[in-house]
Amino acid sequence: MSTSVTPALSAEVIGARMERLPISRWHIKARVIAGAVTFFDGFDQLMIAYSMPQIAKQWHLTSSSIAWMIAVGGIGMLVGALLGGWFADRYGRINVIIVSLVVYSVLSLGMGLTHSLELFVIFRFLQGLGLGAEVPVAASYIGEITKAHGRGRFVLLYETVFPIGLVCSALVASWMVPAHGYRWLFALGALPILLVPSLFRLQESPRWLASRGRLDDATRTLEKIESEVTKQFGTLPDYDRNPPAEVTVRSSFVELFSVRYRRRTAMVATAWLTAYFVNYGIASWLPVLFTRIFKVGEKTALHYSVLTSLTGLVGCLTVAFLIDRLGRRLCISASLGFAALTLFLLAGFGTGSAGQVVLWAAGTALFIFAVNMALYVYTAELYPTRIRAQGCAFGGAAGRLGIIFGPLVVGWVLTASNDSLSWLFTTFGLVAVVGCLVVATFGIETKERTLEEINR
Predict the structure, then answer these.
(1) Per-residue DSSP letter, 293
(2) Fewest CB atoms within 10 Å of the CB: 11, 109, 129, 134?
(3) Which among 77, 184, 189 is positioned nearest to 136, based on CA atoms?
(4) For residue 420, what are the CA distances in angstroms to 346, 390, 391?
(5) Which three-class secondary structure state does DSSP give residue 208?
(6) Rounded-to-integer distance, Cα 381 and Cα 364, Å
(7) How many angstroms separate the first and last alpha carbons of the chain?
(8) How many helices (H) and strands (E) does the chain have?
């Protein structure tokens, strides 16, 4: 056992020193601050769905127009995810998180203030840039500051704040939209800008600093973290002072598609695409389906959305406590499989009433929310530090494609099938089956392995 601090000689030594740190108050503080940002990302992301019944009436939108109104935010998230990952691997995790937060907060306020449909759509696209960039980069950051043992649970308990944000958005919307209108809901979406001072006080990822060759900065940052951890625990464990060296390769987006990583990239992109296609396609349309097809009142429709989000939150918490025991591949593939089964049962037996739909949709949310959360920790583990944020961003971008096409497909299927919910949910079930088979076949297991070991 040793309390001495040896100057960092390599990125591998920085990683070894990070691995010896027990989960401490410093780690919890970082998780809470980053988690607060991610909470509001979730809060802002589905406000458009909960506001859509009023927005559609205000601007007399058709089903096709509603689909594109929802999809335009997904297009912004797709672009934001790719740009955010690129910038995060070059200019730092914390810097990109701060810029992303400011963008989605300010644009949310703009959406609440404008009376122009054109400006509303433009603001929604620009807000999507911030929403899409923040979550994958924050997931990279949290994964990099956490040691291998228990990393899955630690990261997923952080990620759970995202569905909590979705739930709170639904709860607030169910009261605020009918009582005061959707504009006040979007105004609340500007609140996260108050978190900027806390983010400026958060240390950058030592692993990222080292990967950029900034070993002195990495050492100074790590010494500050070690000092805080030592105050809590006293003597720190020793670490491997001569860890195996990683292959030195210049950071490049193209490396995601190299011989070594292209199978991982294709697998994880498929998982993101299918999971978000199902999740966002259903979640964004449920309030409209309830009001238009089942003639349910606006307030009741929003309450139904709260129920599905709450059930999804249970799925997130469940996978957080299972993922380190069962492994990433099994948790993700099995959850997609059960989501597909639930959707097929909904298509066959549950489309007769709004109550049946909400119960089966809640069952789907239980599994599909779990997949969405597990993918954040899994994707961050599959790539080395030099391209980790870009890997997470590419997975996130694939998810944003799902966010774009999920709502669009709902509009197309409803139009082509004369509002047949059986055809609609069968389509979603087939998409979930594809994701399940791809992850089960091509996924690799990463539980209890250090980030350096996985990518050595």
Answers:
(1) T
(2) 109
(3) 77
(4) 12, 39, 38
(5) helix
(6) 26
(7) 27
(8) 19, 0
Write the CATH number of the domain with boundaries 11-237+251-454.
1.20.1250.20
Is residue 189 within 8 A of residue 108, CB to CB? The reply is yes
H, E, C per residue of 152-192? HHHHHHHHCHHHHHHHHHHHHHHHHHHHHCHHHHHHHCCHH
Structure tokens at 40: 């509001």
Q: What is the spatial distance between Cα 7 and Cα 241, in angstroms, rounded to a whole number? A: 10
CB 251 within 8 A of CB 387: yes
pTM of the model: 0.76
Cβ neighbours, 10 Å, residue 413: 19
Tokens 């003597």 — which residue? 235
Q: Write out the DSSP string of 305-355.
A: HHHHHHHHHHHHHHHHHHHHHH-HHHHHHHHHHHHHHHHHHHHHHS-SSHH
User: What is d(CA 254, CA 272) in angstroms, rounded to the nearest whole number?
Assistant: 19
Both structure tokens of 329: 């591949």
> 258: Cβ–Cβ under 8 A, 6 or more apart, which residues?
none
CA distances from 265 to 83, 260, 272, 280 (A): 17, 10, 11, 22
Q: Which of 71, 53, 45, 70 lies closest to 167, judged by CA?
A: 45
Q: What is the pLDDT along the chain (456 residues), one digit of tens a residue?
A: 444 444 445 888 888 888 899 989 999 999 999 989 988 888 887 788 788 888 988 998 887 788 788 888 888 988 998 899 899 989 999 999 999 999 999 999 999 999 999 999 999 999 999 988 998 899 889 989 988 888 888 888 887 888 888 788 878 888 898 889 999 999 998 999 999 999 999 999 999 999 888 999 999 999 999 999 999 998 888 877 777 666 555 567 889 999 989 999 999 999 999 999 999 888 878 888 888 888 888 778 878 878 888 899 899 999 989 999 999 999 999 999 999 999 999 999 988 898 899 999 999 999 999 999 899 889 989 998 888 888 988 998 898 888 888 888 888 888 888 888 999 999 999 999 999 999 999 999 998 888 878 776
Q: Where are the domains of the chain?
A: 11-237+251-454
Which helix (H) or strand (E) segment holds residue 439: the answer is helix 421-442
Nearest by Cα to 89 from 385, 342, 296, 420? 385
Rounded Cα gap, residues 409 and 399, in angstroms: 15
Which pair of structure tokens corresponds to residue 77? 């998230």
* Rounded to 5°, angle at Cα 428 from 423 and 320: 150
